[in-house]
Amino acid sequence: MPEYRVIDAFTDRPLAGNPAAVLVMDDAYPDAWAQAVAAEFNLSETAFARPVDSPDADYELRWFTPTVEIDLCGHATLATAHALTEAGVPGPYRFTTLSGVLTVEQRDGLLWMDFPAKPPRRIDTPESLADALGTEPLWTGVGGQDDLLVEVADEAVLRALEPDLAAVARLPYHLVVPTARARTGPDFVSRVFAPRVGVPEDPVTGRAHTVLAPFWSERLGRTRLTAHQASARGGDLLLENRGQRVLIGGRAVSVARGQLDL
Fold this sequence. Notes:
It comes from Nocardiopsis algeriensis. The chain is an alpha+beta fold. Helix content is 21%, strand content 40%.
């Protein structure tokens, strides 16, 4: 029977940050089974890791929302590294994924993920976006192929957003990421909406920061940044923009563990 852990990522206290379920498997498993397990947990992502015999990676890592498999997820990667650390597996951790080989290492009391950067390219604002979000964007751009970055007027506007999620889901983007300069504390704040893939609002999203880090690094003229995702649970991230790569640092806390009766 597979063991699981539920881990809160990008936080140093339980019941905050972004929860992910993590299953470290011994063998291969059916895709349909993994998707059904993710739907059962009903968290924004469930991660499945299993050892692989490869010179480049130690584990295969896959991520499932309640409805689809996705090609990149930050908080569930952080949670998987935390689960391996708790199990006594020494790092650094090398994962082969749909986004290539990703590594996680421990440094300065944090887990640091090495992800591909997705600098956003500016686009014309989609006609329906202002109505969908409930505010007029200052700037819009696309990171990678399907993550929409939206700069809004200020932090107060960002925190007050109550988007029309049905309208957001009709936009052709995996993530819709409003962001603004922070008033105090971190360098910038953001929120993430992903109803198109079964996640109305994601609490803390590592993937989004592969787009946010290059954007704010250019705006602020610095490669090291602090970020806060202003969801109801909230989460904090440290970022290092290294051109083609983004290092994303954070903490994680285990909150539950058990076995599936499957």
